[in-house]
Amino acid sequence: AEKLSSMKDTDWNDFLQRVCSLLDSTEKNTGAARSKLNLLYYLCTVAVHKEVASRLISSQLFPILIQQLRAAATWDIRAKVARVIGLLALHTSELGENVPVSEAIMLLTELIRENFRNSKLKQCLLPALGELLYLIASKEQKREHPRECWVVPSAAYTVLMRCLREG
Question: Which Gene3D superfamilies match (predicted)?
C-alpha cells in the first residue's frame, strides 16, 4: 500500500488501467475467474490504506466494481467485490461528488432484496451497504457536500431495517 500511495501519476494510471482491464475481462475459464478473485483479495489488502482507498474510490475502478457486482459469473466474485467496496468506503478520507455511491447503494439494496432468504449472501452484502450509508452520513454531517449529492433510496433503509429485525 505504501508503494501504491507514493506512485507518480503516470505509474498510478498504468497500475489502475491494468487492474481495471483484468476486472473487466469477460473470459469465463477457471483461470480467469481465479485471477480475478486473487486481484480482489489484493484490493482488499491495499484498500485499508487511507490514501490508496481515497484514490481507488475516486478512480474509474469504482464503476467497474459496481458493474462486477451486477454481472459477475459467480457469487464468490460478487462477495469479494462487495468486500472491496465496503473497505473502500470504510477507509476513504475523501469522497468526490462524482463517485457513483448512490448507484452502488441501489444495486446492493436490490441484490439483498432479491436474495433475502440467503443469509450467507446477506452477510456479504450488508457490510458494504452499511459502510456506504455511513460514509454518506458522515460527509453530510461534516457539511462537505449538499444533501442532493448522493441520493439514498428509502428502499435501502427499509431493507436494512428488515435485515436487522430478522437477525
Answer: Leucine-rich Repeat Variant
DSSP string computed for 23-74: HH----SHHHHHHHHHHHHHHHHHTTSHHHHHHHHTSTHHHHHHHHHHH-SS
Task: For residue range 90-127, list pLDDT tens digits in order.
Answer: 999 888 888 999 999 999 999 999 988 888 888 899 99
86: domain CATH number is 1.25.10.10
Kindly report the pTM of this predicted structure: 0.89
Rounded to whole angstroms, how far apart are CA atoms 141 and 4? 30
- Give the structural domain span for 116: 1-166
Residues 123 and 15: their CA atoms lie apart, in Å, by 31
pLDDT band at 57 (very low <50, low <70, confident <90, very high): very high
